[in-house]
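Sorry, explain these tokens?

***
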Amino acid sequence: MQRRSFLAGTLTTLSTAALVPTSAFAQDTGPQSNTKAEIDEAFLAVITTASNTQVPVVLGNYQNPADSPRAVARKTRRLVSAYTWNRSAYYHDDSLLGPLLTMCERLRDAQHEDGLYDVGNLHSPPDSSFALQDLCLVWTLLNDDGRTATKPHRTILERIIKLAGPSLATGGVHTPNHRWELSAALARIHHLWPDRRYAARIDDWLAEGIDATGDGSYSERSSTYSAEVTNPSLLTIAWLRRRPELVDYVRRNLAMTLYLLEPNGEVDTTASRRQDQVRIREVWWYLTQFRELALHDGDGRFAAVAKSIETGGTGELGDFLAEVLERPELAAVLPKPAALPVDFTQAYPLQGLARIRRGDRTATLFGGTDFHDLPLIASGLSTNPTFFKLRQGAAILDSVRLSPQFFSTGHFRSNGLHRLGPKAFRLADEVNVPYHLPLPRRYRRADGDYAMTPDGRFYSKMDFPHRPKHYRTLRTEVVVTELPDGFDLTFGLAGSEVPFAIELCFRPGGELTGVEQLDANGNYQLTSGTGAYVVGNDRIEFGPGNGATRVTMDPGERYTYLGGSLTPAGLRVYLTGKSPTKYTLKLRTRAN
């Protein structure tokens, strides 16, 4: 497949030029695959303006000593995009060349003899791949632009890329998405300087199978890694290695993402197995992915998301200019936007996730934690104890959690999500904590030197597996029922008598009423009646209060032993009680 350059001095009348797609669908026959397309002038204006804004920021901090090679490579990409684009305010601006050369030299000097970089991880093939993808794109844009003034830059970049290639073709990874990032970097290097070792390594990784699930997610269930790594990498491999079958994984992921979108452009991440399970993510990262699939499929829903990103004004949209300069078909006029889903109940059983939306009101239910299969707190596992979220416009309840005081076993984490009917779901778990009885005679040792084994909460030289046990049990159930004006969360706790606390964590920026302030750190309690959280015209009411007893949120011994915390950021309101009990938390929404 022939590489395309958007400008390189040839499309000087861009507003009337036609774009011929050279996309990942080269062997496909989608609606746009064999047609010429008009330029989307509004889209180009948005990313050009965003790029112009980035340049002075880069020029002000390009010598930051704390920047990793990945950060330096991205800054280099931002300057080169502006330098080679004839609509940029910095087109062929020689003042960019000095900083560009400094960053190229810095990248050269930071590279190990094996061609790899240290980016947190030492001599890291995957982390180097992130930088190399940007540098391949940068070299391509400068080479197509062809100015003599950038020859020193291209010479350094070519040396960096060629030195890295063999190590990327023999190196390993840490996470599922690393395989695709590494393969995409090899695809780019192979496209510029072909080497059959690179193609063979890509085939080896792809032969493992893409870690996609039937609901459209990837194994990491992470918006961050879908948007920033897996989707763009698969599209790059599909385009450069003629593997159009890879595009379907991206298509299904984007289709799922439609139901994870919040009205304000955030993407729900509750089910994630990565860092974003407790962080905010925004949809702008997906811009060119939604564009490409909208153009190929004629999918108006994808077009609507792309246009909402372009007009939303958030994110580093200037970063997409380089992609469009490399692949001009991405700037074609989109199909007519279609209505996005805004009235649905969508369940994802493979994630233990359900999403409910009624216009500006959305809710998330989650019971898909990994904790019941792997009772560990570790990176790469879903351990988020948030089981419910609710939004009414700008009023955002980021988290509902439950913490019983039961042998320091920590938060309630549902063992699955079960649909009870069109408007109701059930979350439930049973926790059994043992008291250990004397060892049977055949396992006793005179020296008392027993195996170091886990009790479930801690380790000790007690040979726990061979001991008979007496158990204390706590059974917890939460039934979530949708109502016309909100939700009822009915809590049932039985089996043991324990105090518990329900934590409602609201997004900062609104006003709480009807609650008692416990301290100056954002902690409140509702002891009786109804409280409310109000942001502008949007309102979430909650209650009734369930007594004045104060119960702390116990994250469990796995956290407290190491001084860890699970306290979410925001305005936290606590409702307390004692089991056995049945209590209904009424959440009502209103747009004033």
User: Anything to note?
Assistant: The longest helix spans residues 41-61. The chain has two domains: 14-331, 343-437+470-591.
